[in-house]
Write a structure and sequence with these properties.
By secondary structure, the protein is α/β, with parallel strands linked by helices. The protein has 4 helices and 11 strands; from the N terminus they run αααββββββββββαβ. It folds into 2 domains: 70 residues; 120 residues, Leucine-rich repeat, LRR (right-handed beta-alpha superhelix), CATH 3.80.10.10. Strands 1, 2, 4, 5, 7 and 9 form a 6-stranded mixed β-sheet that branches. Strands 3-6-8-10-11 form a 5-stranded parallel β-sheet, covered by helices on one side. A hairpin with a 2-residue loop joins β1 and β2.
């Protein structure tokens, strides 16, 4: 019987302790909104809040616009593997999936100078535009691109290495500036050219 009474008293004491803690927490919670009101009122004026919300809306709109125009145009780095050399960039591989490709003039803040060896080898590209500033097409750069129908070469192009277009479609048309190295190269290789 003593054990039962002791157990009952111990259980009662424990319950009273829990209830006391609960009442203290409820008091703290009831007092918290008053402290929160003071914090919010000192955080800023209505004008500052409006400016913040306007900035947030603007940032959201810009983000949605970048999604609509496509990540490819917003971040061309995602479509190419490349390495930095001598203050410029060499494209080492096209890893995108779009059959219509523009090799940009700048990647990672540096000028693209070279389309590297085998960079487009066997890729399912149909049209390629090389931006102004690119100087070199390395060995076998477009080797085996059987679906390639049109490529635009810039006036800045100064060297096309061996086999750059080997294994490409015989109907490939090279678009290039009149009198440029690219035009001379394409004509000497018997490629169909459109010069402008």
């Amino acid at each position: 019987m003593k054990r039962t009474v002791c157990g009952f008293l111990a259980g009662t004491a424990l319950c009273l302790g829990v209830i006391g803690c609960r009442q203290q927490r409820e008091t703290e919670v009831l007092e918290a909104p008053a402290q929160l009101d003071q914090t919010v009122s000192t955080a800023g004026t209505d004008a500052e809040l409006a400016a913040f919300l306007a900035d947030l809306d603007r940032d959201r709109a810009l983000y949605l616009e970048s999604i609509e125009t496509g990540l490819k145009s917003a971040a061309p780095e995602r479509n190419f593997e490349f390495e930095e050399k001598n203050g410029g960039v060499t494209v080492t591989e096209y890893i995108g999936s779009d059959p219509d490709v523009t090799v940009p003039a700048v990647l990672n803040g540096l000028p693209v100078l070279t389309v590297g060896e085998n960079a487009f080898r066997g890729k399912k590209v149909k049209t390629v535009v090389l931006s102004e500033g690119i100087r070199t097409l390395d060995w076998f750069a477009f080797y085996g691109c059987t679906e390639l129908r049109s490529i635009t070469l810039p006036a800045s192009l100064a060297l096309v290495e061996y086999g750059a277009f080997d294994g490409c479609n015989s109907t490939l048309t090279v678009h290039c500036p009149i009198g440029s190295y690219a035009a001379t190269y394409a004509v000497s290789c018997g490629m169909h050219t459109e010069q402008s």
